Amino acid sequence: MTRSLSPLLAGLMLLGAAFVQAQAAPAPTPPAAESFRLGRLRLTALRDLQNVVPNDGAVFGVGVGPAAVAQVLAAAGAPTDRIALGVDALLVRGDGRVMLFDTGLGPTVNGQLVASLALAGVKPDQVTDIFITHSHFDHVGGLATGDGALAFPHAVIHMSNREWAFMRGQARAKALVALIGPQVRPFEPGVEVVPGVRAVALYGHTPGHTGYEIASGKARLMDIGDSAHSAIVSLARPDWDISYDQDRAAGRASRRAVLLRMAATHEWVFAPHFPFPGVGHIEAKGQGFVWAPDKL
Ligand SMILES: [Zn+2]
Questions:
Q1: Who has the most CB within 10 Å: 1, 36, 219, 225?
Q2: Is the pLDDT of residue 130 over 60?
Q3: What are the structural domains of the chain?
Q4: 197 has a pLDDT exceeding 80
Q5: Cα Rg for the chain, rounded, in angstroms?
Q6: Average pLDDT, the chain
Q7: Spatial distance between the Cα atoms of 144 and 163, rounded to a whole number of angstroms
Q8: Residues whose Cβ atom is located within 5 A of ion ligand 1
Q9: pTM of the full structure
């Protein structure tokens, strides 16, 4: 099926304009899938892409400058001229559902999500539920196939009502909104969207940005979405502005709040932009936090 291919692709590219401008042209990354258990559930981190943002003061550490950002990177033993980011999604299987949290950039920008999903033994038409943290291109781009059709034809798409309103208000998202509209089921903040998946309002990055807390028995994992982008800089200096946040003050506040909570509860965290597989724990350190990746 081809459905208004050009407007859809043009819209996707525009949606991602800030993302794409902020990095070197993303090259294809080999697909990858890393599975682990959370209570009765089987979780799998899925790689869509890897990319790199130059440390030039335009994205990270807005207002503090590249030298200060370089100091933080150096202290973590990382290269100081660039910030490495993943683009990942999370697959959750159990209780009769096949659930996908965000959908990556999609095939129009070399996203490998569907190939990673295949590594986990899942076909797109088996996905029953998709949970969108927010409507930026690197999270919703994968909702469309390369030829402009629905990528997950049998899935209900869950998105906060505020985010869906935000997305519908963007002219450049019009074609994608038309494509996915019949599948979208918006929800109120704080609800248990499906049994074991609770929506957590983390506004600021976008007007309806939402994290998801996944629970099975006593086990908990929080998908923090884009509350933090760099596993180094965003954690060490959560109060520094990032250009990706639409409302920077609200973004700072919700970032610090969720990191504080994750450090206190010590539950598992999935962060789609941390180095693949993006699963670990948050620990308090100094004026900020540090990422403790888990070996899966
Ligand atoms: Zn993102």
A1: 225
A2: yes
A3: 5-293 (3.60.15.10)
A4: yes
A5: 18
A6: 91
A7: 18
A8: 138, 226
A9: 0.93
